[in-house]
Amino acid sequence: MEQLVVSSYDEFASYLGKKLGESEWLTVDQERINLFADATLDHQWIHVDPERAKVESPYKSTIAHGYLTLSLLPHMWNQIIKVNNLKMMVNYGMEKMRFGTPVITGSRVRLVTTLDSIENLRGICRAGIKFQIEIEGQRKPALEGLATFLYYFE
């Protein structure tokens, strides 16, 4: 899908209730999981010990940290939309976030988004984005929720 480009509040608002797009597929490999474990000091065996996971995990493999899956959101979001005439964008909050299915090491994930709400707050655009991080070949998403961003247009 082609990247959406918007340059103003009115352009953005025209997508209310519509699918904004989807990112490219991204492989979540063991190296990415290990680097995340190092960055967060979360070295739980189900994430970083493939040999133990083969034997003891119900998935027979290591899995990505839930917060690693969440942390991929900005990278994939930037593939979906380009906002021109922007001074600044701020992550404002997350709501209704649920981890649905573990991301097994080696799986591919992508982000799918819909514009759920949009408000003009004295020149600041507050956009509520429904999102799902899908796992290739899986019915249930790895993660879903509602992200709120503040866009400060020039």
From TrEMBL:
> What InterPro entries does this protein's entry cite?
HotDog_dom_sf, MaoC-like_dom, NodN-like
Q: Which residues form a coiled coil?
A: none
Q: Per the record, a Pfam family?
A: MaoC_dehydratas
Highest taxon listed in the record's lineage: Bacteria
Do you know which CDD domains this protein is assigned to?
NodN (cd03450)
Domain MaoC-like, which positions?
12-121
Q: What is this protein called?
A: Acyl dehydratase
Question: Which source organism does the UniProt entry give?
Answer: Prevotella bivia DNF00320
Its organism's taxonomic lineage begins at: Bacteria, Pseudomonadati, Bacteroidota, Bacteroidia, Bacteroidales
